[in-house]
Write a structure and sequence with these properties.
alpha/beta; Lysozyme-like; 6-stranded mixed beta sheet; 6 strands; binds zinc ion
Amino acid sequence: MPEDLDSTFRAVLVSKHGHYNFDDPDKIIIHAIAEYYFGTHGRIFSADEYLKREQMSMHSIITPSGINFRLRNDDQCAWHTKHHNKVAFGIAFLVPGVHTDESLREAIKDDYVSIPQYDAGFEQVGQWLDTYQVIEKLDKHSDLSDEPDPGYGFPWDEFNKDLAL
Ligand SMILES: [Zn+2]
């Protein structure tokens, strides 16, 4: 079994990525990625390893247990949504389990966000909305690209309503 996710993410936080210019953020983009991915040769990658392999990053990753891992500071750029990275915060809700792209696509069709995960995501997004008042709505990754996430399983209406959007 892969090592405990929480300790994996702590390691990522310690080994900081470089600092990149980030223009005034005007978007918050909601993503879903798998907690673990099947790799080649029977390997299993944790979400942070997956992001690194795909040369992607997020400002925040919310685990099913409700931990908010900040992988980028607010003033650092993250690579998560083509053509929007210079102005968009990226937050990913982790989908429990080990997935392929196909199984993840299926998994996000049904409820996958736990209550502590919802609360932690709410707190992070709420903080951004308070701090960056130019942001008046949230975007789904799927609104801005061909990617399917965060999927119908994400409680979009409830989340927006709770944030008074
Ligand atoms: Zn995405």
